[in-house]
Amino acid sequence: MKINDIKNKVIVGILPLLLILFTVSCANDDDNVSQSFDIAQLQARITEAEDLITTSVEGINAGDYQPGSKEALQDIVNWVYWRIDNSNSQGNIDDAILKLNAGIDTFLASTVSVAIPWIKQEPGTYIELSDNAKAVTANPFTIEAKFYIVNLQQRGYSNNMFANVMGLGGANDRGFNIRYFGDGAVHINVSSHNNGWSQTSTAPGVVESGKWIHVTFVNNINNHALYIDGVEVLTNDNEYAASDSEFPLTIGNTFPWNDRVLNAMVQDFRLWDKTLSPEEINQYKDGVEGTESNLVSYFPFNTDLGSNPTDMIGNTTAKFVGDFDWRANGEPPVIVVDYADLSASITSLTDFISTVVEGTQDGDFPVGTTTYLQGIADAAQDLIDNEADQRDVDGAVERIADALAYANNNKVQDTDGIMIDLDDPDAIGYNVAPSWHAEGNSFTIEISVKLNSLTVGNNGDIGGEILNNGSYLLRYFGENDNARSENYGKLRFYTNNGDWNWIDTPFAILVPGNWINIACTLDTSTGTQSIYVDGVLIVSQVTGVTSSNAPWGDMWLGNGWLKMNGSVKNVRIWSRVLTPGEMGADLVGNEADLEMYFPLDRVSAKVAPDATGNYSGEVRGATWNKN
Hints:
Shape: elongated
Helix content: 10-25%
Signal peptide: 1-27
Protein name: LamG-like jellyroll fold domain-containing protein
Number of strands: 35
Keywords: Signal
Organism: Flavivirga eckloniae
Strand content: 25-35%
GO molecular function: hydrolase activity, hydrolyzing O-glycosyl compounds
């Protein structure tokens, strides 16, 4: 079917309303019936749309239409012309009117508004700069922006302002990040191929919430400086090297550890391919024209340009990923917190505590239950007293529910260790605090292990961790959905006093379903590391290492970096090397040189001391193997 000369031969009737019609020939109809459609309204809307396209101005200033909006409307107009030329009913024309009306409405709503982006502190939220901006950071550069910190509270390890981080270990630890913490302290963290990560820190209170601050980081490869409102607050002299291309330059978070997201508004971002002097920092901190020499990227971030804006210079783009809110006129967000559920939960918990009777007999609440629950109640009340944010309040409600569930479901009885279930996302492990420190001594670590299977998580090392405190690590190897480790079933004992050293069992010794007692020793007099299984020496090697204190404040059983899939018990650490005959022996808990002892043979409170009284252990989602 075709329409005869629709654009130029409009048949004008003599009706008072000047009804505009057009004629179609039905080439596919045997009787070739002529049809007429009403396009007056459509033609008027086409004219309106084309006038908008001709007269409107696109740009990034308030009142402009967003870049690309004219092209989008033109695409709809082009489709409408096609629809007219290919219509076979009045319904087709009416449908085109609806689509064009919607297109015009969308265009009219696309004006650039005065607004500033609020990064809402949800994991996975950040602004990613395009690759050509990231490439600038391979050479000396300066990066700066203004931040309005809504509050200082942390969602993850830190609140990161600028970051380009590659954290794959060794020579693959490269990049930088500028971050602050809940106490207002700020860190510069840089790394290169050779030197590893180096962190320098300010005192607490350098940044505050509730006001705009201007932050400048100057990176000169071998020395770096951080300025707040034009004043130098921190330096770092560690060598720097940029990350590989797949690790992006981000604002407001770190990739790939994307829970290090801040809670702040951001504007006036700039990237320079030179190191600014203190005088230049103060000259430009209140604003730039956008034409300055060496300024390679400039995003005012003061108008809502959508999720993929181009900078003022036209060099780079930004991608908004995650949860943002554009605050009209830069109005800071007002956070309203609902404490009702938390108050009710505290009341329920307090009432429950009054009914608890602790003891050591089967069926009693374990000793320490009341202390732990009261601590949970006090911490929850502290959130109300100090006006915590909603996320922390909701988290406290969940913690109270979890604490009550644990107390009701874990009364005193015999147990065959504690299990960390790989398939249960809530099963984190057994956390020991404070961390154990070797302090230069020889030592023996004993732990009984029973694996559920040699299936492990989908991690690069294809393994699981039985014990880890950041300096001493016992790992086994298995298989996952992607591959089977070449070390399948083997054990590896790591030590770290500046560099990682390790020894492997020469063959697969882990058989799922069977308990084995593993003893790892370090003899500092000879620098010898050894692994024993059930009192039998499996491997011994002179690595030359000496013992050192752990960098972590705690120690993990069943986790660390890689979660295990199985159970542990009889955890003992000695400040000397045991003989094979001493390994796995029955203990009282007050033996000489015994530093730590968790039998894990009776259900305990969620947080309970070890047999020596030196340490406490906390059940983090693990389950008791109750008899």
